[in-house]
Amino acid sequence: MKKWIVSVAAVGMIFALSACGAKETPKAAEQANGNPAAQQVKLVATNFQFDQKEYKVKKGEDVTFSLENKQGMHAVQISGVNVGLDNNNKTKTVKIDKAGTYDIVCSLPCGQGHATMKSTLIVE
To answer: Which residues pair with 91 in a beta bridge?
Structure first.
Protein backbone atom coordinates (compact mmCIF):
# COMPACT_ATOMS: atom_id res chain seq x y z
CA MET A 1 0.00 0.00 0.00
CA LYS A 2 2.84 2.41 0.84
CA LYS A 3 4.47 1.80 -2.55
CA TRP A 4 1.21 2.63 -4.30
CA ILE A 5 0.86 5.95 -2.40
CA VAL A 6 4.49 6.87 -3.14
CA SER A 7 3.97 6.06 -6.84
CA VAL A 8 0.81 8.20 -7.05
CA ALA A 9 2.57 11.07 -5.27
CA ALA A 10 5.55 10.83 -7.65
CA VAL A 11 3.28 10.90 -10.72
CA GLY A 12 1.40 13.89 -9.29
CA MET A 13 4.67 15.70 -8.67
CA ILE A 14 5.80 15.04 -12.25
CA PHE A 15 2.57 16.54 -13.62
CA ALA A 16 2.88 19.58 -11.37
CA LEU A 17 6.47 20.24 -12.39
CA SER A 18 5.77 19.78 -16.10
CA ALA A 19 2.96 22.35 -15.93
CA CYS A 20 5.37 24.89 -14.40
CA GLY A 21 7.79 24.43 -17.30
CA ALA A 22 5.32 25.24 -20.04
CA LYS A 23 6.77 27.05 -23.01
CA GLU A 24 6.22 30.79 -23.18
CA THR A 25 4.15 31.95 -26.12
CA PRO A 26 5.68 34.54 -28.46
CA LYS A 27 3.07 37.10 -27.39
CA ALA A 28 3.90 36.58 -23.72
CA ALA A 29 7.61 36.97 -24.50
CA GLU A 30 6.93 40.24 -26.33
CA GLN A 31 4.95 41.61 -23.40
CA ALA A 32 7.61 40.49 -20.92
CA ASN A 33 10.39 42.45 -22.62
CA GLY A 34 8.25 45.59 -22.74
CA ASN A 35 8.61 46.20 -26.46
CA PRO A 36 6.21 44.11 -28.54
CA ALA A 37 7.68 42.86 -31.80
CA ALA A 38 10.44 45.45 -32.11
CA GLN A 39 12.94 44.61 -34.82
CA GLN A 40 16.46 44.31 -33.41
CA VAL A 41 19.44 45.89 -35.20
CA LYS A 42 22.80 45.32 -33.53
CA LEU A 43 25.52 47.60 -34.87
CA VAL A 44 28.88 45.99 -34.13
CA ALA A 45 31.74 48.47 -34.48
CA THR A 46 35.39 47.57 -34.92
CA ASN A 47 38.25 49.78 -36.02
CA PHE A 48 36.99 51.72 -39.04
CA GLN A 49 34.05 49.50 -40.00
CA PHE A 50 30.67 48.12 -38.97
CA ASP A 51 29.91 44.41 -39.11
CA GLN A 52 27.54 44.90 -42.08
CA LYS A 53 27.60 47.16 -45.13
CA GLU A 54 23.82 47.56 -44.86
CA TYR A 55 21.06 46.81 -42.38
CA LYS A 56 17.43 46.29 -43.46
CA VAL A 57 14.26 46.99 -41.48
CA LYS A 58 10.56 47.24 -42.23
CA LYS A 59 8.83 50.60 -42.49
CA GLY A 60 6.30 51.51 -39.81
CA GLU A 61 7.52 49.05 -37.18
CA ASP A 62 9.47 49.69 -33.99
CA VAL A 63 13.20 49.12 -34.37
CA THR A 64 15.59 48.81 -31.45
CA PHE A 65 19.12 49.80 -32.40
CA SER A 66 22.02 48.78 -30.17
CA LEU A 67 25.72 49.53 -30.34
CA GLU A 68 28.49 47.10 -29.47
CA ASN A 69 32.08 48.36 -29.57
CA LYS A 70 34.16 45.27 -30.30
CA GLN A 71 37.36 47.11 -31.11
CA GLY A 72 38.08 50.75 -30.31
CA MET A 73 35.67 53.40 -29.05
CA HIS A 74 32.85 54.42 -31.39
CA ALA A 75 29.53 56.26 -31.43
CA VAL A 76 26.84 56.06 -34.09
CA GLN A 77 24.62 58.59 -35.81
CA ILE A 78 21.86 57.57 -38.23
CA SER A 79 20.85 60.65 -40.17
CA GLY A 80 17.16 61.27 -40.73
CA VAL A 81 15.83 58.86 -38.09
CA ASN A 82 16.89 60.55 -34.84
CA VAL A 83 19.23 57.78 -33.67
CA GLY A 84 22.46 58.56 -31.86
CA LEU A 85 24.23 55.87 -29.85
CA ASP A 86 27.35 56.03 -27.70
CA ASN A 87 28.78 54.41 -24.57
CA ASN A 88 26.27 56.22 -22.35
CA ASN A 89 23.25 55.45 -24.59
CA LYS A 90 23.80 52.06 -26.18
CA THR A 91 20.21 51.37 -27.29
CA LYS A 92 17.34 53.32 -28.76
CA THR A 93 13.95 52.28 -30.12
CA VAL A 94 12.31 54.30 -32.89
CA LYS A 95 9.55 53.86 -35.46
CA ILE A 96 10.61 54.73 -39.01
CA ASP A 97 7.60 55.63 -41.15
CA LYS A 98 9.42 56.61 -44.33
CA ALA A 99 10.99 54.05 -46.67
CA GLY A 100 14.42 54.90 -48.02
CA THR A 101 18.12 54.69 -47.31
CA TYR A 102 19.83 56.39 -44.39
CA ASP A 103 23.53 56.86 -43.69
CA ILE A 104 25.04 55.25 -40.61
CA VAL A 105 28.31 56.87 -39.56
CA CYS A 106 30.71 56.75 -36.68
CA SER A 107 30.26 60.07 -34.89
CA LEU A 108 33.25 59.76 -32.56
CA PRO A 109 36.65 60.42 -34.15
CA CYS A 110 38.28 57.01 -33.87
CA GLY A 111 41.51 57.27 -35.83
CA GLN A 112 42.93 57.27 -39.32
CA GLY A 113 40.05 55.34 -40.96
CA HIS A 114 37.26 57.26 -39.22
CA ALA A 115 36.12 59.08 -42.37
CA THR A 116 35.38 55.79 -44.15
CA MET A 117 33.51 54.16 -41.25
CA LYS A 118 30.06 54.12 -42.82
CA SER A 119 27.15 51.77 -43.41
CA THR A 120 23.59 52.07 -44.73
CA LEU A 121 20.16 51.56 -43.17
CA ILE A 122 17.56 50.43 -45.71
CA VAL A 123 13.93 50.88 -44.70
CA GLU A 124 11.62 48.83 -46.92
So the answer is: 66
